Amino acid sequence: MKTKSIRGLFTELFILSIIAVCSCSKNNASIPEVITTGITLITDTSCVCGGEIISDGGSPVTSRGICWSTNDSPSVTDNFTNEVSGQVVFSREITGLSLSVTDNIPYYLRAYATNDAGTGYGETVIVTPGTVLDIDKNLYHSIIIGTQIWMVENLKASRFINGDEIPTTTVGLSVNDDNPVIYQWAYDNNSGFINDYGLLYTWYVATDNRGLCPAGWHVPSDSEWHQLALYLDPAAVLSWDESAIAGGKLKETGTKHWSSPNTGADNSSGFTALPGGYRVIDRFWDNKTSARYWSTTEQLPNSAWYRLMFYDKPGLSREPLYKSNGFSVRCLKDN
Fold it and tell me: Is the pLDDT of residue 10 over 80?
């Protein structure tokens, strides 16, 4: 009978030990940990989504990217990207989506990473039709009212779309043709109001050529506000008391944000007007009791037209006031 040499035996045992170590290492691997870093850009047909690998699970990551679906748990069996090998942080534009406000299909996206142990996923993010992001990545929804498309939230961007910061101040302001006051404020200088009520801006910010609203959107003119009023109330007139009923159709219902009794509010338009109040000279007034929205249209060299709704009235007023006042802004989609 043929026997193995001592050297051959040791060689065989060495090879078997290497195989065992590799097998053990593979068996001890876990799926990668990955996070979805969120949405950074949305258009009517695309969005940009990113991810970051936190841990490879003890085994090399062989593929990574973004997966998406109209089902609420997207996976690599659905649509997916496959990013460059070795990337820890990645993002990709996802195209071919239907995100116009006229569509009715939400999309679900999440990052993924795969190794020998399996595939790990980040948190799912949702992109719904009619959503838009501002320069600060605040997300807004939109709604069709007549032939117009309006944002459903008050604007809260703290920068122009070119990236320039919009400053703030606590001192009083004076306005003349040579002194445009470009400022924004949180109501009562309290950042806790921003999420619900947005920021307050001077007229000069609303009309600055650097752009306040996201690309493809703009601050409405006086005539565009009137077009909205006419759609809600055919009896509306372009005067100070524009409509006796349109305000109620624009105001958010209930008293979560509006003071009681929030007269006439049924929000039948879906506009969801919110009472951000206003700033004049160096004081803040009327949070929860009035919504005041700039138009881009001048009345006099130091005043411009705006729209006004009160908590105790169903009407929509059209009034002029100094351009240095801080009012809310709602954006309107470009034609």
Answer: no
Task: Say what the pTM is.
Answer: 0.83
Flag whether pLDDT at 25 surpasses 70.
no
pLDDT score of 59: 96
140 Cβ contact list (under 8 Å, min separation 6): 131, 132, 133, 134, 151, 152, 153, 155, 214, 331
Contact present, 253 and 234 (Cβ < 8 Å): no
